[in-house]
Design brief:
5-stranded parallel beta sheet, 3 domains, elongated, alpha/beta, 16 helices, 347 residues, 52% helix, single chain, Rossmann fold
């Protein structure tokens, strides 16, 4: 059924940011008036799935604090110790189902199996919770099948759907769910998540990852695991080197393009990092952030200076990144896309 068992976070208190989501969900838990279906919608990597798992844990916690005491806080926490919480933490709760995309999409067979499961009562809990991740990947027939269960939801079942804010979701689906918005985290919040998940990270690296991910800790962790930051730094150094000539150093650029293409699913995020770099140079130029003393010290050693581009040239390079992203979406040859992009960026 596409069910996955993962290590879960059983407590809202461990989740950083998303105060609006905490408040909305906390009120529903306190009042025992949960909707039959929620749609968590926001950028990738900001905690939608973690919130879904924490909500599922809290819903069926056997020792959850009483509503009276909980009203003094913004949300309800699961105890983390009862048999239900332990099963959630180990990924073995029989009344928690996770349906994720397989090979990039949620197929109708998975939805049909889910509907069949929902026709039976929960095994041991008051409420069965089903998490459908990235529903924007569903094919049309799967979405229509899901719509039927949203129109006539069976009792004692809670559906939590997640979707990227940048992707389309059928209005007929979103209108039958209570939509909970998720947002990019602040830089300090992102750093807090990174240092908690990866204690070995140096603070400077965590700051860089937080900035490059633009408030999406999940994306930042992806950058860290794939060593994308190291590759990005090498790429920036290559493109900024005034000693590199595209007509002469063809082999160097082709080798860099091959390394980029090997990233596979991380290639698009790398393009995003390049865009941030170019955008930062545009902003720095418009604000006049020029270190004139450093310029004076560099006179006579121009071979060590980085390339300088005009605003018009930087806009052209940003356009080149956008074209490369569109070509990848059309399944053009990845290596060729990277080669063309690098030759355009190094000019």
């Amino acid at each position: 059924m596409g069910i996955q068992h993962r290590q879960l976070t059983p407590s809202f208190s461990r989740l950083v940011g998303q105060e609006k989501a905490k408040t909305l969900l906390g009120r529903a838990l306190v009042s025992e008036q949960l909707a039959h279906a929620y749609l968590f919608r926001g950028p990738d990597g900001v905690g939608k799935q973690l919130f879904a798992r924490s909500l599922a844990t809290a819903v069926n916690c056997q020792q959850r604090q009483s509503p009276e005491s909980s009203l003094r806080s913004a949300y309800l926490d699961a105890c983390g110790h009862c048999s239900s919480c332990r099963k959630y933490s180990s990924g073995n709760h029989p009344d928690f189902l996770v349906i994720s995309p397989e090979k990039g999409t949620i197929k109708i067979d998975r939805i049909r199996e889910m509907i069949q499961s929902l026709s039976y009562p929960p095994y041991e809990s008051r409420v069965r919770v089903v998490l459908l991740e990235d529903i924007h990947t569903m094919r049309a027939e799967a979405a229509n099948s899901l719509l039927k269960i949203l129109e006539e939801p069976p009792e004692n079942n809670l559906l939590i759907l997640t979707a990227a804010a940048s992707r389309d979701v059928l209005t007929t689906i979103s209108s039958r769910c209570q939509v909970i918005p998720f947002f990019n985290l602040g830089q300090e919040e992102t750093i807090q998540v990174l240092l908690r998940e990866k204690p070995e990270l140096e603070l400077d690296t965590a700051r860089l990852l937080a900035r490059l991910s633009e408030g999406c800790p999940g994306q930042a962790l992806l950058f860290y695991r794939s060593e994308m930051v190291a590759l990005w730094r090498e790429l920036v150094a290559l493109l900024s080197d005034p000693g590199i000539d595209g007509s002469r150093d063809v082999g160097m650029l082709l080798q860099a393009a091959e390394t980029m293409a090997a990233l596979k699913e991380e290639l698009l995020p790398l393009f995003g990092l390049v865009r941030i770099w170019l955008r930062d140079m545009l902003v720095a130029g418009s604000l006049g952030h020029v270190d004139h003393e450093q310029v004076a010290r560099d006179e006579g050693r121009r071979e060590n200076k980085q390339k300088s581009w005009s605003s018009s040239q930087l806009f052209d390079k940003l356009d080149a990144v956008g074209r490369a992203e569109k070509e990848l979406a059309r399944n053009c040859n990845r290596t060729l896309v990277c080669e063309v992009l690098l030759f355009q960026l190094q000019k």
